[in-house]
Amino acid sequence: NAGVTQTPKFQVLKTGQSMTLQCAQDMNHNSMYWYRQDPGMGLRLIYYSASEGTTDKGEVPNGYNVSRLNKREFSLRLESAAPSQTSVYFCASSGQYEKLFFGSGTQLSVL
Amino acid sequence: SQQGEEDPQALSIQEGENATMNCSYKTSINNLQWYRQNSGRGLVHLILIRSNEREKHSGRLRVTLDTSKKSSSLLITASRAADTASYFCATDAGTGNQFYFGTGTSLTVIP
């Protein structure tokens, strides 16, 4: 049972480049999430998807787009990366009212 | 702004002592959760307490919840060096499918 799998683990981008972070879960969860974690800031919710076909903005959505491709997969896209998006990104999934399961994270640096 | 705030921001104790960290939040909740993050790793779920519960135990962990004060505490008894990590609280802001994290408490247990 793999749980939540996110790729890549590390990425370096130049300002203005685009990239997509992939996330998949095999626990049949309805809800999926993207967070970013900066030093001293804790985790901040970027976007979430309460069910297949729906997505909603979280606390810090600017500069990001998401796609809930199907029940298993939830991707995060940076269209034009900026240095302020240098962070560690975590994908997570959960059942409603239940605990979150996290992926291992993506360390992104934007130069 | 983030839903939860933990205090203290940092805590250093001797092995065998108890560690207490607190979380305050802003809105009504269905549940509150505590997570641990070891340096450079993903988050691991520790315990979930529902809004109609006042106290919950899991091994050496004890969590209390006071919804009238919008606060929770996590007690780790008989701490071990392996408990050294950052601890975060997360609440669902009454939604059941959006989870917001505090900035965390960094715990150091000195052998």
Question: Topology of this structure?
Answer:
The complex is a heterodimer of chains A (111) and B (111).
Chain A: E1 4-7, E2 10-13, E3 19-25, E4 31-38, E5 42-49, E6 56-57, E7 64-68, E8 74-78, E9 87-94, E10 101-102, E11 106-110
Parallel strand pairs in A: 2-11
Antiparallel strand pairs in A: 1-3, 3-8, 4-5, 4-9, 5-6, 7-8, 9-10, 9-11
Chain B: E1 4-7, E2 10-14, E3 19-25, E4 31-37, E5 43-50, E6 55-58, E7 61-66, E8 71-76, E9 85-91, E10 100-101, E11 105-110
Parallel strand pairs in B: 2-11
Antiparallel strand pairs in B: 1-3, 3-8, 4-5, 4-9, 6-7, 7-8, 9-10, 9-11
Category by helix and strand content of chain B: mainly beta
Helix coverage percent of chain B: under 10%
Major sheet description of chain A: 7 strands, mixed
Largest sheet of chain B: 6 strands, mixed
Low-confidence stretches of chain B: none
What does this structure look like?
Chain A is an all-beta fold. Chain A has strands spanning 4-7, 10-13, 19-25, 31-38, 42-49, 56-57, 64-68, 74-78, 87-94, 101-102, 106-110. In chain A, the strands form two sheets. In chain A, strands 2, 4, 5, 6, 9, 10 and 11 form a seven-stranded mixed β-sheet that branches. Chain A has a four-stranded antiparallel β-sheet with strand order 1-3-8-7, with no helix packed on it. Chain A is globular and about 35 Å long. The mean pLDDT of chain A is 94. Chain B is built from no helices and eleven strands. Chain B has strands spanning 4-7, 10-14, 19-25, 31-37, 43-50, 55-58, 61-66, 71-76, 85-91, 100-101, 105-110. In chain B, strands 2, 4, 5, 9, 10 and 11 form a six-stranded mixed β-sheet that branches. In chain B, strands 1-3-8-7-6 form a five-stranded antiparallel β-sheet, with no helix packed on it. Chain B is globular and about 40 Å long. At the A-B interface, strand 4, strand 5, strand 9 and strand 10 of A face strand 4, strand 5 and strand 10 of B.
